[in-house]
Amino acid sequence: MNSQSFAASCCGGGFAFPALIMGDDKAQITSSLSYGQVTDDVLPNQKWIKRGDDNHSETFKIEAATLLTDSIQSGISIPVVSRQIANENSTGMGDVSLNLGHETFPELSYSRWKPKGITFLQVTLPTSPSVYDATNVLAADSRGRGFFTVGGGLAFIKAMGTWDLNSSIELHKSFSREFTSEASGGTITATPDLGHSWTVGGGWNKGDWRVGTSFTGMYEDAVAISGAQTSAGAVQRNVTWSTMVNYMMGLENAWTLSYADQTLFGTPENSSLSKTVTLSFQTRWQR
Predict the structure, then answer these.
(1) How far apart are alpha carbons 184 and 16 in whole angstroms?
(2) Residue 50, number of CB atoms within 10 A of its CB
(3) For residue range 131-148, what is the model confidence (pLDDT) as tens digits?
(4) What are phi and psi of 69, to 5 degrees?
(5) E strands, 55-162, where?
(6) How many angstroms separate the CA atoms of 247 and 255, rounded?
């Protein structure tokens, strides 16, 4: 069964679910290429506005994880993002994430119901421009969120015959930063706060194939702005529905094709909603 990773949309709020080893492997590398189209904006008052400016992005991402001991692992996620809005475009590094995981709830003996559980810590680095220091008029060069973020949570996975279930929950804290740009009219201080996300999903396995689906909810506290501009901000929330098909090439390699849609479920607020197609390839090394 494939391990999985989940993420929010490219340049909105949110916290990427870390690339964790969820199977009985000692290391894994996942490369993925995704194409996302922003189709709608939802204002803080939950009013929907249809986008017509050809706002799309391509993201190439490398994620790697390895065991440090039998129960402790580390990982890294490095994205390269190419964005285009109308006639403006930008390509470069996205926000890099580092994580540590611990197999806190191992499956040491057979249980029909008990899942395998990983606790994790993750640090996201502001290694790319954000909307607060973008130089493009339409902020096409904002490829990340712009904040140093620390978070942690739990991830569970359980195989039951031809079916599997997975879930996760995490809480994170982002820290304030100063930004200077012409668009903001000088220097501003952006002060975020807490955020959280959750994921529930499952799949059906048949031979080398797996078909699955998941729901991911994201919430971010308002980002307060002070300095050259002043704003109390507004909370951000949305729900992403994903469906995926996995194909195993032996025990070590797997292809995954997935589709994610943020416009179908939940009550989004203060969000740019996207539809994304992703193709990924994963190589694993068994213990």
Answers:
(1) 27
(2) 7
(3) 998 887 888 999 999 999
(4) -140, -175
(5) 56-67, 72-85, 88-93, 97-105, 116-124, 149-160
(6) 5
Q: How far apart are CA 284 and CA 29, in angstroms?
A: 7
Q: What angle do CA 218, 219, 223 make, to 5 degrees?
A: 135
The two tokens of residue 236 are: 């951000």
pLDDT band at 5 (very low <50, low <70, confident <90, very high): very low
Of 251, 204, 252, the closest CA to residue 30 belongs to 252
The position carrying tokens 């990773």 is 5
User: Which amino acid is residue 187, in one-letter code?
Assistant: T
- Which amino acid makes up residue 34? S
Asked if residue 1 has pLDDT above 60, the reply is no
Give whole-number Cα distances, 87 to 80, 84, 140, in Å: 20, 7, 9
Residues 6+ apart with CB under 8 A from 16: 5, 6, 7, 8, 77, 97, 122, 124
- Is residue 66 within 8 Å of residue 73, measured between CB atoms? yes
Provide the token pair at 200. Answer: 């529930």
> Beta partners for 5?
none
At 207, the amino acid letter reads G
The label of the residue with tokens 């204002």 reads 43
Task: Please state, in angstroms and rounded to a whole number, the distance separating the CA atoms of residues 280 and 256.
Answer: 5
Locate tokens 């904002």: which residue?
142
Could you give the dihedral angle defined by the CA atoms of residues 166, 260, 28 and 18, in that order, rounded to the nearest 10 degrees?
Answer: -70
Q: What is the pLDDT of residues 193-251, one digit of tens each?
A: 999 999 999 999 999 999 999 999 999 999 999 999 999 999 999 999 999 999 999 88
Rounded CA-CA distance 240/6 in Å is 10
Extended strands (E) in 115-185 = 116-124, 149-160, 163-174, 177-181
Q: Which tokens sit at 234? A: 């507004």
Q: Which residue's structure tokens are 């220091």? A: 133
